Amino acid sequence: MASEPNVGRIITGDACVAEGAAWLAAKDPRFAAALLLTGPLPLRIRADGFAALLSAIVSQQVSLASAAAIWSRMKEAELIYPRNVKSASDDHLRAVGLSRQKVKYARALANAGIDFNALRDAPTEDVIRTLIQVPGVGAWTAEIYAMFSLGRADVFAPGDLALQEAARILFELPDRPKERELRKMAAGWSPWRSVAARLLFSYYRVAKSREGI
Prior knowledge:
single chain, mainly alpha, Endonuclease III, domain 1, two-stranded antiparallel ribbon, 13 helices, globular
């Protein structure tokens, strides 16, 4: 586990995730029970940069299969670089599967001039503040980017429906918690909120499999 000035702890490998999971299990027996069902949690660290954020935009509001197919066509057409997105025609971008709205979002990201290398050393709050300035990048996308592309150990995405539903089941809540309520709950899981997210994502899959979904 690395720790950087102004950034906090960075998840760099499976040992970091295991450390966070053990901390959560010791803090709350319900997390411990969930871990018995999920087994070791996934690392889920992926690349950062323009392509990673563009991929997240492509994935919004489409199935995993559709997103994968579109992204494959974009990579084949080399439309995963800012200069290529900016120079491509709308017809070219639509031909690989982007909707009109996502064409606008892709262009906005390409023209945003974000220094992705600088984000690696920026406080999480600054990362999110920078990213949500781009049309098509909301809080959820920015938080997921900080969590999985930058490896931040203490960030959460309370607007995620799977996390909300997993929290409802695990903590036996009467209703699915709204974003504000889940954000407040997650404050108690600091400094391992991103590991709590991994645990809840995994628990969601287990719980829904039991329900036959």
